[in-house]
Design a protein that fits this description.
CATH class: Alpha Beta
Distance between the termini: 19 Å
Radius of gyration: 14 Å
Largest sheet: 6 strands, mixed
CATH architecture: 2-Layer Sandwich
Number of helices: 2
Strand content: 25-35%
Structural class: alpha+beta
Order of helices and strands: EEEHEHEE
Number of domains: 1
CATH superfamily: RutC-like
Amino acid sequence: MAVSLVGPGVLYPGAPYAYAAVAEGTGLIFTAGACPLDEQGAVVAPRDIPAQMQRACENLERALAEAGCGLADVLKTTVYVAAQERRDLIEAWRVVEAFFQAHPAPSTLLGVSFLGYQDQLVEIEAVAMRPAV
């Protein structure tokens, strides 16, 4: 089975990893954690969990599109929130819930101490299945 790595496309080109990997022959797609980065690689909206989660979800949708699928093809997501309190998780989840309203795939929501980029508060990754052509 071959693996195809998905490059940045419209996403920030300076990330030191692929944005997704496709297991050819199976159609399974595994995304990297989508971060709240703009096109220049800067974290958007420091200290604003909902705004960062919105951008991270938009970046996830872009990575999925580069891999040949969309939100309706998502099998599962994992959401990470650098949380001080439980309400931080709820703020992030409300954005994810609205974003996936038409396709509420299974998800895991985790509070973590910190994430990879300075001022980053959220991240979301997904497993998806590329539609048959």
